[in-house]
Design a protein that fits this description.
Number of strands: 12
Strand order of the largest sheet: 10-3-12-11
CATH class of the largest domain: Alpha Beta
Number of domains: 2
Radius of gyration: 23 Å
CATH topology of the largest domain: Alpha-Beta Plaits
Helix content: 25-40%
CATH architecture of the largest domain: 2-Layer Sandwich
Strand content: 15-25%
């Protein structure tokens, strides 16, 4: 079992005050079968009453959201790549040149619900908490808009809503999974690119899948990585940077325990020196 960087072992029951907690739940997103339909984006907004984000036309992609934000808790990326090993068959059939064809890399991105959650570590009000399912949720009625969680996230997931100031992100549909339902995005996905379930089972399923898909790699599944493994991980067809993901994410608060320990030892040393000086002066 992973550990929380500040609070010891990640045990949803002990962290959140629950007993007989259910197994840790998560997402496995298989990008090799994502068709870019954006059903997950729509379902997320619909169920969670997330406001629209302006429907911006970016001009360089079919993507009209651009990234995760306070008003986009799911984001489908469209990445167009030349496919050097193939040609445009329609162009050849029409007597044209054998120009290289292309491929789309599509990925539905979301909050990773990290094992070592930096956002959870730095929140001063308790607005961020870990649920009995091992997910990380923001309580908007407690958030004071300080913004500390925004730079603490190594994935750039959390965002403050304009005109509101409070932090917002994916809750993994906490209200749905508490009733035994599937999160809205996974429920709406027509190709099962987004899969929801027990995290250990999803990791085993992902290992079997990556062995069958040429050029595939897993991202965020390793409990020994810089965030202790993600509660939402991915099968990718290229390097993480291509999808806008950090290649080696590290939770920003991972060194805090050692820093506090060193500060404590330094404080004790100073107190001892003052005590010795005071006792010596009295002689």
């Amino acid at each position: 079992m992973g550990t929380n960087s500040l609070y010891g072992p990640l045990d949803p029951a002990s962290d959140a005050g629950y007993t007989d907690a259910p197994p840790r739940m998560g997402f496995f997103t298989d990008t090799s079968v994502c068709i870019g339909c954006k059903a997950c984006e729509v379902a997320c907004k619909e169920w969670n009453a997330v406001p629209d984000d302006g429907f911006t036309l970016l001009g360089h992609s079919y993507d009209n959201t651009g990234g995760l934000s306070a008003d986009s808790w799911r984001h489908v990326a469209f990445i167009e790549q030349p496919a050097a090993s193939s040609v445009d068959a329609l162009a050849v059939a029409a007597g044209g040149p054998a120009t290289p064809d292309f491929r789309w890399l599509m990925m539905s991105n979301v909050c990773k619900h990290c094992t070592h959650a930096g956002c959870l570590d730095v929140c001063p009000t308790g607005a961020l908490f870990r649920t009995e399912f091992g997910t990380v949720v923001v309580q908007e009625d407690i958030c004071n808009g300080c913004g500390y969680c925004v730079p603490a996230c190594p994935y750039g997931v959390i965002d403050q809503r304009k005109g509101d100031g409070r932090a917002w992100k994916c809750t993994m549909c906490y209200d749905r999974i508490g009733d035994g339902l599937t999160p809205a995005c996974a429920q709406a996905c027509p190709t099962q690119s987004i899969q929801y379930g027990e995290l250990d089972e999803l990791r085993e399923r992902a290992r079997e899948r990556v062995a069958k898909v040429e050029g595939a790699r897993l991202y965020g599944h390793d409990p020994d990585d810089g965030v202790g493994g993600d509660g939402a991980f991915f099968l990718l067809l290229d390097e993480p940077e291509v999808y806008g993901l950090p290649p080696d994410p590290i939770v920003t608060t991972r060194d805090l325990p050692a820093m506090w320990k060193r500060a404590g030892l330094a404080g004790l040393a100073m107190a001892a020196a003052v005590a010795v000086s005071f006792l010596g002066g009295n002689r």
